[in-house]
Amino acid sequence: MRALLPSVFVAVTSLALTPAPADTPIRGFFPSSVQAQRELETRFKSIPDPARMREAMRRLSARPHHVGSPYDKENAEWILDQFKSYGWDAHIETFDVLFPTPVERVVELVSPTTYVAKLQETGLPGDPTSNQQAEQLPSYNAYSVDGDVTGPLVFVNYGIPADYEELERRGISVKGAIVIAKYGGSWRGIKPKVAAEHGAIGCLIYSDPRDDGYAGGDVFPAGPMRPAQGVQRGSVADMPTYPGDPLTPGVGATKDAKRLSVAQAPTITKIPVLPISYGDAQPLLSAIGGPLAPGSWRGGLPISYRLGAGPARVHLRVKSDWSIKPLYNIIARLPGTTEADQWIIRGNHHDAWVNGAQDPISGLVAELEEARALGSLYKQGWKPKRTIIYAAWDGEEPGLLGSTEWVEAHADELKAHAVAYLNSDTNERGYFNADGSHSLEKFINGVAMEVDDPESNVSSWRRVQAAQILNGSADDRREAREREDLRIGALGSGSDYSSFLDHLGVASLNLGYGGEDPGGIYHSIYDDFYWFMHFSDSSFVYGRALSQAMGIAVLRLANADILPFAFTNLAETIQTYVKQLQMLRDRRSEEITERNRQIEDGLYRLTSDPRDPVTAPQRKQPAPQLNFAPLLNAQDSLTHAASRYEKAYAKAVSEGRVANAKAVNERLVQAERALTSPEGLRNRPWYVHMLYAPGFYTGYGVKTIPGVREAIEQGQWSDVDREIARAAAAVEREATLVSALATTLGGP
Ligand SMILES: [Zn+2]
User: Fold this and answer.
1) Cα(499) to centroid of ligand 1, in Å?
2) 430-436 vs 101-111, strand pairing mode
3) How far, in Å, from the CA of 64 to the mean position of ligand 1?
4) Residue 425 CA to ligand 1 centre (angstroms)
5) Do strands 115-116 and 324-334 pair parallel, antiparallel, or not at all (unpaired)?
6) What is the DSSP string of 658-699?
7) Helices (DSSP H) in 170-223: which residue ranges?
8) pLDDT digits (tens, 9 = 90+) for 623-666
């Protein structure tokens, strides 16, 4: 093995400064299986090759490859061929989805002066793929409704609900107006949704240079940041209601699927929306009159940011081709042996807005190298106990289309068989990041300890710990030093794990490295091979690290004697969430009481500047006391059950056997499912997980115990008791399952 691969071996030894001793325990493995597993992992780790990743990125990002484009299909076929050549049983699974592409786009200032927005990103002489204009999708927001509107312009900051409260206090209404919002502060689809709720007739979204332009460094091509004509494309479908094809909620978009009409689709925006560059935004913003924007709203342009409405009037026209387009998901399989009906699923999307070297190819090339490595072990005779399924999704960018339609089409099988879903998307230099199901927190900490960080030559885990100690709050610091496992974040939405976790309750993790490569090329024509080779992981050593981490995770899940879920971390995390909810209620209560008193005492009237008047905010209903007892009882049940399970697990491992491993593993597969509720979240039944969901008014950002948290945040006090009962019931179901597991494992 070593003799055959001298160059690779040298590279690997120079990285492997901290190899774990061969008998260091691995979560889920009996002592008798540990050594073979470690040897397998060592062989696996030596295979992923940065030079191949670089070549694959160059090939996959050579031309624009959005949904429905010729190169999207060519890439899909090439990826299929790769999987087959690695020894996988692979096929393309096609869906037919609504994917609008722009036909007409007009933004013009019609008074008091005139300006016609260019709406065109300019190609750069040194950057070869930036000039492929014929194949580039113009800058637009997918799933904007068609419209032709003219109205006064109002600057709404990030366009989130709190911004409209501020506008209202200044007597500024957006009724009948076109709003212009900055990117950031929320997921982009929230901006037209909230604008329409307030009566706006159109929405522009622009990238302010303070956020990802020159304020953060030189702009491309001199540096990595967004140039004046750079535009962020992106979907504005109402994904917090449901992601995927807007016409086929809840079912796969197969040829014969029953479809809504476009007019019926609830996730298409209510008003037309278009993204623009800061080059195009500046003439519009500088024509706005009215009061100065609050200090925190102002961006990095050399203008006075004013709110309006008017005198700037803008004409906005958007029209799309609403035809159905094909999606090509590549699905590849390595069959399991003794536990073949338990599936370990791993995916990354392959479609991009334009060339997409970073998003998504930086993650996809790592996935391909894992697949090659697993295939090579397989060819040499290794067989996984469980079935491994690798997916390269199409249509992630417009709205998680490929993964969502696949999950909906195979929902029953997945509910029965899926052990876990592992996702990646973009990858950069920096720190290992894991977010996901807290029943896998202990497991993924173990994985992070096995992978060396390419820059610091310590484990990826150790480097994250170092940063948390250095940069964290006093509490974070203490935890990072003393807690056995580093905490992982919860998942909201924003990539292909969403359907697995939120719609089916499949335990999921999203992994990637990042934090050292600032940039302003997201969803623009400048996210390409040239940019990546100048400003990101150009030696692909972090690509290799991602391959190694993912591969070890897959190998451990596929081969474990007892599936490596641990419920103590989950129980403890739920305790922190419940504590947060109690504090949130108390903080809201204090804020509302104080605010109402300030209003009653006339303080806003007394302090208002008559030349720049600001009125008092609206009175709010005082927060009632809430009964958290059902949730507190449920968390106690789970804490108790989890510690019983942990003892039973330790005993089983120390004895090196379980009488009924099959029954235990089958039940473990269902553990995340217990946290779902079939009727789903209020107002959005597609989302069934009671612990994690993207925020209804934040988009990608997660809301934990979302039913309760959002009812409190939105002041819908009469809903809270019911939501507490529903969340508590899910946690009690989990406790019952974990407790039964402890008994089956033979614990006390
Ligand atoms: Zn992506």
Assistant:
1) 15
2) unpaired
3) 14
4) 5
5) unpaired
6) -TTHHHHHHHHHTTTGGGB-TT-BTTBTT--BSSEEE-TTTT
7) 190-197, 209-212
8) 999 999 999 999 999 999 999 999 999 999 999 988 889 999 99
